[in-house]
Design a protein that fits this description.
Elements lengths: L2 E4 L2 E4 L5 E4 L3 H4 L9 E4 L4 E7 L9 H9 L3 H18 L7 E7 L6 H14 L14 E5 L1 H8 L4 E3 L5
Parallel strand pairs: 5-6, 6-7
Antiparallel strand pairs: 1-2, 2-8, 3-4, 4-5
Helix pairs in contact: 3-4
Length: 165
Amino acid sequence: MTVLVENDLEFDFSSALEAIVFDNDALHNPSTMKRVDFIAEFNDRFVFLEIKDPDQPGAANPEAFKKKLLTGNLIPDLAGKYRDSSWFQTLSGKNTKPFHYVVLLSMASLDPALLLAKQDELKRSLPITHTDWSEPCSAGCVILNLEQYNRQFGANSVRRLSAGV
């Protein structure tokens, strides 16, 4: 069973063929490349997972994070992480399956409708398609809260360590 941890969140990737911590200087050498937190390979796809968790106990400044999200300043950063990570995977010959981009945004105070609006903004910012491209750069792109993530990937796919459950 592959379990990866990002701060206070533990992810179960037991259904994946492989899952790695992609945001790792030892893997990439120090560079200015932006990286998603995890990449998991499944039978039919790669999932690029970026985690934002302002609800974690002791988070430095959740209100500043919310402001960054609401003003649109977070979306370009999220887009850059996916673009650089997919570029790296492609140039490493690891583009044999479709890429899916998942952003887990663990902030209970956010309305799911806002997540959908930010998801649309992220899709435009990537962009998913371009007239000069023969295929889209991503087969899927979603921003999910914890509840939505567990519905999509399984009830035990992520848990908060501080909750002790």
